Amino acid sequence: QVQLQESGPGLVKPSQTLSLTCTVSGGSITTGDYYWSWIRQPPGKGLEWMGAIAYSGVTYYTPSLKSRTSISRHTSKNQFNLQLTSVTPEDTAVYYCARMTSWDSTYENWGQGTEVTVSS
Question: How far apart (Å, rounded) are the C-alpha atoms in residues 3 and 37?
Fold first, then answer.
């Protein structure tokens, strides 16, 4: 029932900011016990968890990206956002938003993913 959809530009120039939006339907991002996450997969590599915003609004980030990552939300639109600053070609990846259950850390709902290329 819960569905997620990523949106945003597919091409970003190096040194600029990557900005994506995840629109959620079928459930509220403020509903307790869920974490709303951003995960990416560079070409030929595995999934990399970037960070999440909890139902309470508290944010969490992976240490390797913390200095460049910001996750926010617009509760009235049932959306949460990703901003990744100072991007390089190594940030090229398919970016996913997903809902994680807090009780067993399971990513039970995923968006379809959106491909973002960092290139000049």
Answer: 13
